[in-house]
């Protein structure tokens, strides 16, 4: 199946996309981070621009060049990402949380570099929970009919875990990636299933991130009716 010139089916819509991975600082030179590249979020931004949307991309630590035609807002930590996403979501028709948000951050930030001391074991790092941005956006829709999309990487019983997460987060769509062993749909690892709160289940075969992005926008556009 090939796609012709993108249909401008998101014209007049404001879409907010988070991408990348947050970094939670320990001291001026160190952080807790994750391996998210941000590429899926950028593919969502590019395809949304191509389909006519006004796009706000909230970017965390990707180092990727700004996609043409998108407004890019930078955020470093989960707390900063929350601020930026909530601000942009105030007049958004769609919010897509593709960013990998750190679940925890160090309870304390050392304003000076943490130094080792001879003969002393390192102090343990105490962590605290970060806010759940997706759950908050979904619970507190800034606009009537706003569509909220999450991402999840799961192992083991991927679909059951995804269903449970969709319900817990309260979002409309959840893109579930299987990590680890190959299974279901007969493809390589990394294929996705898009779960809908309406019970819908859309498998997306292994392929470029743009193809997954376009499937997400197809499902979003169908919900606009
Ligand atoms: N997410 C978020 N805020 C957080 C954590 C996650 O907005 N503090 C969003 C992610 O951007 C993603 C979705 O929630 O869209 C699912 O992330 P995931 O890490 O799979 O969910 P968690 O609830 O953190 O569950 P887990 O314990 O499996 O990590
Ligand atoms: Ca998590």
Key words describing this protein structure:
alpha/beta; eight-stranded mixed beta sheet; 26% strand; binds calcium ion; Rossmann fold; 5 helices; two-stranded antiparallel ribbon; binds cytidine-5'-triphosphate; 225 residues
Question: What order do the helices and strands come in, and which of them pair?
Answer:
Layout: E1 14-20, E2 24-27, E3 30-32, H1 39-50, E4 54-60, E5 70-74, H2 78-89, E6 94-97, E7 104-106, E8 127-129, H3 133-139, E9 147-154, H4 158-169, E10 173-178, E11 192-196, E12 201-204, H5 209-224
Parallel strand pairs: 1-4, 1-6, 4-5, 6-9, 9-10
Antiparallel strand pairs: 2-3, 7-8, 10-11, 11-12
Helix pairs in contact: 1-5
Bound molecules: cytidine-5'-triphosphate and calcium ion.
Describe what you observe in this structure:
Helix content is 26%, strand content 26%. The chain has 225 residues and is of the alpha/beta class. The strands form three sheets. The chain has an eight-stranded mixed β-sheet with strand order 5-4-1-6-9-10-11-12, sandwiched between helices. Mean pLDDT is 92; it is low at 182-189. It has helices spanning 39-50, 78-89, 133-139, 158-169, 209-224, and strands spanning 14-20, 24-27, 30-32, 54-60, 70-74, 94-97, 104-106, 127-129, 147-154, 173-178, 192-196, 201-204. It contains five helices and twelve strands. It has one domain (14-111, 122-224): CoaB-like (Rossmann fold, 3-Layer(aba) Sandwich), CATH 3.40.50.10300. A hairpin with a 4-residue loop joins strand 11 and strand 12 (201-204). Bound molecules: cytidine-5'-triphosphate (CTP) and calcium ion. Catalyzes two steps in the biosynthesis of coenzyme A. In the first step cysteine is conjugated to 4'-phosphopantothenate to form 4-phosphopantothenoylcysteine, in the latter compound is decarboxylated to form 4'-phosphopantotheine. In the N-terminal section; belongs to the HFCD (homo-oligomeric flavin containing Cys decarboxylase) superfamily. This is Coenzyme A biosynthesis bifunctional protein CoaBC.
């Amino acid at each position: 199946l090939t796609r012709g010139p993108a249909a401008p089916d998101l014209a007049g819509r404001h879409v907010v996309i988070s991408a990348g991975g947050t970094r939670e600082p320990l001291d001026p030179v160190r952080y807790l981070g994750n391996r998210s590249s941000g590429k899926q979020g950028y593919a969502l931004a590019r395809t949304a621009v191509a389909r006519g949307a006004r796009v706000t991309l909230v970017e965390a630590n990707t180092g990727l060049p700004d996609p043409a035609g998108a407004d890019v807002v930078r955020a470093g930590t989960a707390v900063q990402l929350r601020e930026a996403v909530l601000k942009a979501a105030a007049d958004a028709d769609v919010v897509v949380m593709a960013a990998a948000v750190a679940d925890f951050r160090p309870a304390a930030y050392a304003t000076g570099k943490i130094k080792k001391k001879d003969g002393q074991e390192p102090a343990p790092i105490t962590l605290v929970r970060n806010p759940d941005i997706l759950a908050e956006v979904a619970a507190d829709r800034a606009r009537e009919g706003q569509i909220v999309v999450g991402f999840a990487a799961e192992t083991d019983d991927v679909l059951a875990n995804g269903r449970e997460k969709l319900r817990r987060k309260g979002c409309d769509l959840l893109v579930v990636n299987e990590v680890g062993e190959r299974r279901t749909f007969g493809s390589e690892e990394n294929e996705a299933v898009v779960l809908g709160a309406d019970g819908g289940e859309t498998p997306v075969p292994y392929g470029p991130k743009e193809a997954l992005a376009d499937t997400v926008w197809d499902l979003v556009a169908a919900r606009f009716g």
